[in-house]
Amino acid sequence: MPCMDVQQFDRLVARARGLVGPPGDGPPARRVLGLAGPPGAGKSTLAARLVDGLDGLAVLVPMDGFHLARAELERLGRAARKGAPDTFDTAGYLALLARLRAPAPGTTVYAPAFDRTLEEPVAGAVPVGPEVPLVVTEGNYLLHDEGDWAGVLPLLDEAWYLDLDARHRVPRLVDRHVRFGKDRAHAERWVHDSDEPNARLIARGRDRAHLVVPMT
């Protein structure tokens, strides 16, 4: 992942931990922390490290679990734009965030994940038990303000924007596509034609974040 010194990471863990209320007679109210940013900024890696650093207080629920399946993208004529705002089940993601914030007592909520090897979402892959006080969710469009995406930010207790210079982010993103099966020429075209237009759209939400995290 992009570099981050230990002190910066420890501050982020402390800030995330601060979202969880103090122990009381009953279970604490569920909080939701969102990590947004362009493709290749390090969202999924930082989110996983945060959850590990929170010692059982948090579960990671990725927005990418709401990618539309390839067959549906092909039916809609959107397969070549996979990753654009209209290639996700936004309403489903909003409904899950609402359930996660206010689950029925004693209920485990199941969330989908995304398998990068298959390039497909996997339903019911992430259990969020009733004892979990913090959900960390990460994805491109948590700060997007168009259409149904505008409903995401009000469901987050905090939203962080991960900021990584394109000089470092783009080569990293190309390498990731290659690692998951694209040849390098195809990966470079995909980043130029699809990921980077999305990145420019995502960057418009930077000022709506509660915290901007520089990824150096």
Task: Summarize this structure briefly.
The chain is built from 6 helices and 7 strands; from the N terminus they run αβαβααββββααβ. The chain has 216 residues and is an alpha/beta fold. The chain has one domain (6-12, 28-214): Rossmann fold, CATH 3.40.50.300.
Q: Architecture in CATH?
A: 3-Layer(aba) Sandwich
**Global geometry:** globular
- Low-pLDDT parts are none
- Percent of residues in beta strands: 15-25%
Number of strands: 7
How many strands, which pairing sense, and closed or not: the largest β-sheet?
5 strands, parallel
- What share of the residues lie within helices? 25-40%
Look up the CATH topology.
Rossmann fold
CATH class: Alpha Beta
Order of helices and strands: HEHEHHEEEEHHE
Q: From the structure provided, what is the oligomeric state, counting identical versus distinct chains?
A: single chain
C-alpha Rg (nearest Å):
17 Å
Find the structural class using helix and strand composition. alpha/beta
Q: Which homologous superfamily in CATH is the superfamily?
A: P-loop containing nucleotide triphosphate hydrolases
| Average pLDDT reading | 93
Task: Work out the count of structural domains.
Answer: 1
Number of helices: 6
Span from first to last CA? 10 Å
User: How are the strands of the biggest sheet laid out side by side?
Assistant: 2-5-1-6-7
Care to describe what's here?
The chain is an alpha/beta fold and 216 residues long. It has a single domain, classed as Rossmann fold (3-Layer(aba) Sandwich). It has six helices and seven strands; from the N terminus they run H-E-H-E-H-H-E-E-E-E-H-H-E. It has helices at residues 6-18, 43-53, 70-76, 90-101, 166-179, 184-203; strands at residues 31-36, 58-62, 109-115, 120-128, 134-139, 158-163, 211-214. The model has no long low-confidence stretch (mean pLDDT 93).
